Amino acid sequence: MAINSVGFNTSILNQSVLNLKNQLATLQSQLTTGTKSTTYAGMGVNEGFAIAARAQLANISAFSDTMSNINTNIGIANTALQSMVDIGTTVLNSANGSAQTLNSAGQTIAQQTATSQLSSMLGILNMQAGDRYLFSGGAINTPSVASADNILNGTTTQAGLKQVISERAQADGTSGLGRLVLSSPTPTSVQVAEDVAGSPFGLKLSAVSSSLTGATVTGPAGSPAAVSVDLGGTNPNNGDQVSFAFKLPDGTTESIQLTATTTNPPPTGSFLIDPPPASSTTTTAANLNTALNTAIGTLANTSLVAASAVEAGNDFFNTAGTATGGVVNNKAATPAPITGATLLSGLAGTDSLATNFAAGDTITVNGTPITFVASGAVGGNQVNVTDSVQTLLTKIDAISGTSTPSTISGGVIALHTDNAAGFTVTSSNPAAFGALGFGATATATQPPLRVSGSPLSSATSLVSGTPANTISWYTGEAGQGSARATATARVDPSVTVQYGARANETAIRSQLQTLAVFAAVTTSTTNPNAAAQVSALSQRVAQNLATQPGQQTIEDIQSDFATAQMSMKNAAARQTQAQGMLQGIVDQAENVSPDQVATEILALQTNLQASYQTTSMLSQLTLTKYLPVG
Amino acid sequence: MSLGSALAIAMSGLRANQSALSIVSSNIANAQTPGYISEGINQVEVQTGDSGASVIVTGVNRQLDQFIQSQLRTETSGGAYADQMAGVLTQLQSVYGTPGAAGSLETAYSNFTTALQSLSTTSGSSSSQISAANAAQSLAQQLNATTQGIQTLRSNAEQDLNISVGQANAAVSQIAQLNTRLQGLNPQDPAAATLMDQRDKAIDQLSQLMDIRVSSNGNNQTSIYTTNGVELVGAQASKLSFNSQGTLNANSQWNSNPAKSSAGTITCTLANGATVDMIATNSISSGQIGADLTLRDKTLVQAQTQVDQLAASMASALSDKTTAGTAAPAALAPKAGFDLDTSNVLPGNTINLTYTDAATHTQHNVTIVRVDDPTALPLSNAGGNPNNPVIGVNFSGGMASVVAQLNSALGGANLQFSNPSGSTLRVVDSGTGSATVNAASVTTTASSLTGGSTQLPLFTDGNSLYTGVITGAGSQLTGLAGRITVNPALLANPSNFTLYSTSPPTNAGDTTRSDFLYSQLTTGTFTYSPQTGLGSAASPFKGTISSYMEQFLSQQSNASTSATQLQQGQDVVVNTLQQKMKATSGVSIDNEMANLIALQNSYAANAHVMSVVQTMMTSLMQVQL
After folding, report:
1. Do A69 and B122 touch (CB under 8 A)?
2. How confident is the model at residue A238 (pLDDT cuts 50, 70, 90)?
3. Is A617 at the interface with chain B, CB within 8 A?
4. pLDDT tens digits, A584-621
5. Is B213 in contact with B225 (CB distance < 8 Å)?
6. Burial of A307 (0-12, 13-18, 19+ CB in 10 A)
């Protein structure tokens, strides 16, 4: 080691002392900032890991922000859904239990409850989480539903629910015979017939049975469908019964039972057997006709009123629709309307479509194709050309996801869909598609549905209401996909959660629909059937509010949300763990331990002091100092 | 022997003493003078009369260790190089900002991805959209600022070159002048020693600026050459000149062709009038000038390429859409291949082709780039993987010309190109089984914010799209980081962060686009040019954008750290040599003091001799015979 005096050479010593001072300054800045350096270079070799770790930390913090946003949204949505469940229970209880007395406005206490609960349910559906409408699907900036007043009463140009109910009531013939026609084809017979074949309105004949001695009952048969009771030459015995079953527009059934009686005048629900000596079956038949007329009139003005209102609610609210084809025949030797058993292709003279489908043809449902193959079809996207029409309908239903299976009846195919707005079915073979009864493109009637025709009482079909003439109660986004998928967020590089909801989901829509119908119906207090009408309505409301097997409930939506929350919770737990580890990497690469820095400062201080001391001592060591001055 | 001769000898001793004293005093006076070499006196005895010898001073002697001196000069230029490199690289580190703090690239990038992620839950909120736009803007501005920082450092290097070349010139001409003056002087002449000190000092200065070789001849002349033999000082001085370009930007690059060069070059005009380009001939590789040249033309250019590549990858990741070709009609069998729609191919966009050569079973990935500037063609594939060639094709002549160019470039690979209709490009194999086209796709740049696709030109090159256009003047990539901006149309309408289609209109809650942007920036994998210093031409670096950023920041920080370490090591070497130099050739005060005392004593002794002689003379005069 070279030892030098100060005067002899200062540069090395200068350099060393400067180095020490620089180190001291670095250590001081480390102590105050807690980090190794303010540049990437100063952080050392592990800085690359720290940069990568910091990027991941930024991602994790973004993800946790996202999760807290979603949790807030789901929390609010859950509260809303729980309130809706409570609303449903409240109205159900009051519909079941309360007194059926009408007030001056023509409504029961339960109906008034329904009115106020409807408003609050609509309010809940329009609730925002932040600036987001939770029940509008993808249209998060648009309110989900129209106001209660608009929905019930409409606007000056658009019809509301009340008007739709009233129109439907007229079309269903609630003030008449429920669109049924009574006649006497022969003097001893009574016939009940629907007024127009294929009309969706009024009472539909479903069955007739009789224990009338000597009488013949036929039907329902023919087009339009009819049933008849022919007493023939023998009068029934006292107590013999004839019973007619009817299907109401909302799918419920009611029956009328008439008893032959010798009591004169006959009590309600009975008809007088023409007494001897005449004992004319013609007179008895006329009596039966009168009694039936009264009974049907009563049914039309009681249960049918309620059923019509409920169905009008369905027309107004339901997003489902139907694409209906025309009547088509097969190519049997004697052409007959096609049935579910009709084959998609076949030789002339067999029960197959008038125009065959061939292998390679396709039918496209909402953009998803079903391909015809010669044989060995696999999965939902292939069908054999030798399969039946029913098989094809099942495959179409699987793709459209409808909750109501498509049907074929009287040569007419009705394709059902839960979402009429975007429902389209097309085919690469238009001729064969035509043999199924459809034009180039099959589209469904779009809700809301309105009664078509004038006068309304003789209407025979429903048409799509337009935005100009009918209120749209749901104002959010109504796409084809699942409601949950309308809001998706990534909460982890590999995990996405779905938390969207739409007010037109079956569970919410059906409750809203029932409440609105209950709230919209008013009953005339002067009508002798008022009590029966209200009772029939309350009964249907109670039934519709109760859980329907196989149908989505509000709790199902809640459990979907719970699943989303659970996957977020799991992701968050993983991220917390990763965060700790990543922060450790950053700290290790960039942070300094204050203890260590303090120790290093002390050591440096000692070094520096020693250097100064040495320098000072060396500076004294020079010959000049010891030379005599003189 | 006479008393007179004794007196004369004592007189010569006094004279010699005086000369020695003047040397000692000048040594002491110049103890702290830089470049001063300690001097000693040369004295010889001279026969006087029959007996006795007087002393005579013949000159001064420079106590110089030439071996240490030349070693010191070499290390000095190395030290100056290391100092300059370490200093500038430390400044470059501050351009990148404080790790993890605001104002660093990584923070701006993380902020942007965080803002995009938050759009996934608040897609319809205009405040979220605006904050995403702001984050994008601050990222673009951070890239602009980084570019500016790097280019300022390059401009500084350019200015420093100007000054350094001036200093080198001054040193060179001073050396030449001193050579001339020393020509007539005896090396032992005290005046010569001073001039030599001055000359050595000038050479030391020059060695700080550049690496030189010094050779001295017997005539006291010194010649100076660069390490590769360009004569700077011979019989006459050469003249160095630098044509400074003032402020540099990312596109200002040095080129050996003066017509293409937009950065200054150093020219040496030799004594015979010939000129030498010192940069083109690599004449200067060390010293401050060498460091400035390396920084200006290599290190900082690479740093700029790294941020340019970052900007380009970001822009392309968000705007480029790759569409696979559709299978060519079956009617062409046995030929098979693909039809590609080239209608949206902009200059810089690519057509990607994968085919397998049946003879060698090798898969080739051909990249066809639209290059409309004929002066840029053909593109160079130097250093690249020969199985993955890049072919430039001029589209300006229409499809027929494109097909002709491609057939001539790839016809030998058993591929056939044709144009069945419109702007469709068909590529099929020859049908002989000698090659199979595996895949073909077209990568185009989205130009509209609401074109219905999730891609959008989020970042633009000023007001134009970034497509990576290649022209004769270079690539659009160069300096992109300095020009990158957020698309002004997007700033005017930040809702396009989520709305990607007007017909049908995108739902407010649709997060398809923001999710795409986020995943491209965080998990999308891209290939980076080997000019960034990462990867090689044959196997370029591939990774996510953030891993690329991490790589180049690490690389720069390592470069800075090792430059600083090198500088510290070099400092120690230079200091040690300087110390040695001072120990052998410098002034030791203690020595000089001891000499002084000796001289004092010697002077007194000589004076005493004179006084004794005088006494003897007096005695002699008083003798009475």
Report:
1. yes
2. confident
3. no
4. 888 888 888 888 899 999 998 888 888 888 778 877 77
5. yes
6. buried
Cβ-Cβ contacts under 8 Å, A421 against chain B: none
User: How distant is the alpha carbon of residue B554 from its chain centre?
Assistant: 18
pLDDT in tens, A408-443: 877 778 888 877 777 888 888 888 888 888 888 888
- Can you read off the two tokens belonging to residue B488? 């002004």
Q: Give the model's confidence band at A78: pLDDT under 50 very low, under 70 low, under 90 confident, else very high.
A: very high
Does residue B623 carry a pLDDT above 80? no
Name every chain A residue with its beta carbon within 8 A of the beta carbon of B558: 41, 45
Q: Which helix (H) or strand (E) holds A616?
A: helix A594-620
CB contact under 8 A, B509 and A140: yes
Measure CB to CB from residue B99 to each of A47, A62, A140 and give the nearest one: A47
> Highest-confidence range of A220-229, A394-403, B352-361, by mean pLDDT?
B352-361
Model pLDDT, residue A629 = 62
Decide if A476 touches B, using CB distance below 8 A: no
Question: Does the CB of A132 have a partner CB in chain B at under 8 Å?
Answer: yes
Contact B99 A43 (CB under 8 A): yes
* A500: chain B residues, CB-CB within 8 Å: 509
Position A1 scores a pLDDT of 35
Which of A39, A587, A624 would you mutate first to test chain B, the one with the most B CBs within 10 A?
A39
From residue B507, alpha-carbon distances to A477, B118, B186 in Å are 8, 17, 97
Q: What is the DSSP string of B400-418?
A: HHHHHHHHHHHGGGTEEEE
B579 contacts in chain A (CB < 8 Å): 2, 4, 9, 11-12
Q: Do B523 and A61 touch (CB under 8 A)?
A: no
pTM for this one? 0.79
CA distance B555 to B541: 13
Residue A536 pLDDT > 80:
yes
Nearest to A39 among B93, B123, B547 (CB): B93
Residues listed for chain B: 625
User: What's the Cα-to-Cα distance from B311 to each of A105, B141, B181, B475, rounded to whole Å?
Assistant: 72, 11, 60, 14
pLDDT per residue as tens digits for the range B57-87: 888 888 888 888 889 888 999 999 999 999 9
Query: Which two tokens mark A476?
Result: 């959010």
- Per the omega criterion (within 30 degrees of 0), is the bond before B374 cis? no
- Residues B158 and A303: their CA atoms lie apart, in Å, by 98
Identity of the residue in A43, A66, A131 whose CB atom sits nearest the CB atom of B125: A131
Inter-chain touch A41–B93, beta carbons under 8 Å: yes
pLDDT digit string, tens, across residues A355-378: 888 888 888 888 888 888 888 888
Residue B590: closest CA among chain A residues belongs to which residue? A623
- Chain A residue nearest residue B31, CA to CA: A8
pLDDT confidence band for A86 (50 / 70 / 90)? very high
The number of beta carbons lying within 10 Å of the beta carbon of residue B552 is 23
Residues with Cβ within 8 Å of residue B203, at least 6 apart in sequence: B73, B171, B175, B212, B214, B222, B224
Tell me the chain A residues in contact with residue B125 when contact means C-beta distances shorter than 8 Å. Answer: 130-132
* Residue of B68, B104, B118, B507 for testing the chain A interface, max A β-carbons within 10 Å: B507
Buried (b) or exposed (e) across A469-500, using 16+ Cβ within 10 A?
ebbbbbbbbbbeeebbebbbbbbbeeebbbbb
Distance CA A530, CA A518 (A): 15
Secondary structure (DSSP) of B167-186: HHHHHHHHHHHHHHHHHTS-
Chain B neighbours among A 495-554 (CB < 8 Å)? 500
Contact B270, B60 (CB under 8 A): no
Q: Give percent of chain A above pLDDT 70.
A: 96
Instruction: Specify whether the CB–CB gap between A571 and A491 falls below 8 A.
Output: yes
